[in-house]
Fold this sequence. Notes:
heterodimer, A: mainly alpha, two-stranded antiparallel sheet, 1% strand, B: alpha+beta, Alpha-Beta Plaits
Amino acid sequence: MLKNIKPFLASAWGKWLTFLGMFLFVGAMAGLVVFWKGLSVTNLTDLVPWGLWITIDLSSIAMAGGAFFLCAGVYLLGLKQYQSVARTATFVGLTGYTMATLALMLDIGRPERFWHSLVYWNEHSLLWEVTMCVMLYLGVLTLEVLPILSSFEWLRTHHPKIAEKLASTHHFAPYLAIAGLCLSMLHQSSLGAVYGVLKARPFWFRPDISVLFIVSAVAGGMSLTVFASMLSARLTKRAIVHDAPLERLSYFIGWMMVGYLYFRFWDALSMTYTYQVGRTESLNILTGGVLSFNFWFGEILLGAVLPIILLLYGRTRRNPTLRMLALLLVAGGVVAFRWDTNLSGLLVLVSYLPGELTVSYTMYRPSLVEWLTGLGIVAYGLMLFSLGVRYLRVVDHSLEQVHPELIPQPVPAMTEPHSLPV
Amino acid sequence: MTDKKISRRDLLKLAGVTTATLVGLQVANQAIASEPAPAGTRQWAMVIDQNKCTGCGYCVMACRAHNDISPEITWNPVLEAGQVGEKQVYLPRPCMQCAKAPCVDVCPVGASYHRPDGIVMMDYDRCIGCRYCEVACPYGARSFNWKAFEGRNPAVPEWGEPEVARRPRGVPEKCAFCYQRIDRGLALGLVPGVDPDATPACVVACPVGARAFGDLNDPNSTVSKLLRENPNFRLREDLGTGPHVYYLPATAEA
């Protein structure tokens, strides 16, 4: 056994796992410190109670937004050519939701009471709705991943019957796609509405946050999925991609980002014409203050404008490196949007004293423990996906030829909607 | 081909049923949400006279002792609120006990809730520590227990004896109008707002009588009379939270 360790560590795969393992270990240790010492080891305060972890939480869920969208496209609209990409997106989705769960466990003050959120209900709370949807959708994603598990080589050779059973669950994919569509439309938007319903925070108090959250989640989630597929195919023979659907999707993402940029710009700039205490100050720190670099470069220029050009212009889109760069930028811009949304509302405090309302400012920088645990969660996500690529063939567009039994019989009504006998 | 067609129809049916269920749930939720603000036989309220408050901070200390609060946390800060003429004006800020409390609406587990007498309560055993209530409160009335409060409370026994359990690490805490004093007082046949033992500690501790406490539904209570006879205001009324804490504004003459 030990004899195999050295060549394993020398291999690129071994080095990659060791690299991630180090972050995972340090993150886990930092996580233990959080559970032991409590949230006093963070830089969170009563004025900024949500910080880096909530950003990771929101971003992980956003990165899972490709799953429901692509599954709906494949199984409800019958866009069969994207089935393999939907498979990857589903696995990215499950990875994202488990990352979000990890971040939440760190973030709540009483992690041992996490089950309270399932048992005690307050139907008025958007966070209740989000919790319910996330839990149910985590179940949906798990069921959607079952057929992927049947690709596990060890399982296929040792327990072929179980593998067959798992593969046969693919039959339910359309039903799961409906459930996924409903649940995701609800909570992906509601995550924005968690902020949007708070009248005490004038900058957040606007309904379009919900729309921006779901649109950016779909664009960001699909971008990460396509990026991860392309990168995996370049790094390992175990990942096989057909470029045509990926290029087509990238083109679609480009147009989607045009819509998103329009909404985001309208959303931000329509606020400039009237002064409203708190709201104007938040907009100022976003467009000219501490968050301005994030906003103009992270969200607008690098996160939207540049990828739109790269993805819509045929020559740059067909260049794999430039396309991958564009997709990564889209995903990064979505993360920046989550970070900016959270902090732009929290860093500005509106007074409640009588007379003219005044504004004061506060600051937040994540502590070392917050960073280490955050990086640990990201390393966990990368490791899960890497293992999926290697052992579960989550990026394999040639699967139809290899395992025809894994592909369910297409529903003819889906492919030829107009040729049904009456 | 035919059975495939049926399966597609089933699919659409399922989609329809799912949508209908979700819509039904929403309607049911709105029916619950549109219930009127909880009304009991009594509605407790506090009236704070800014003309009388000298900013001495006795209320802060009495609050810390009776509710066993860490020195790092203040449920009831006394803030400087500008000047009227030459006179410095103060504004003590307990929890407003809002009739439409944002913290109650946003709590995912229902750990923040209304009592029928209008007090906004915290179930510290149910709270998961997500801090959404802290983010939602317009008055900054909530403080999170970032770490456990251990050891002796420096406000005890000089300012009073603890009457409630200390809150654990990982939950936000806030003023609840000394509900424990009200409940115990009522059980003994006392009148909150009249008998000191049935009245919030801050009201009792105030050396200048700047605070009054009582039942809004009783036209003869001190608070009802004060509000009838004096101009008064509540904090951020524009938000529609309906606070149960009223202020009598400072005037230059008084």
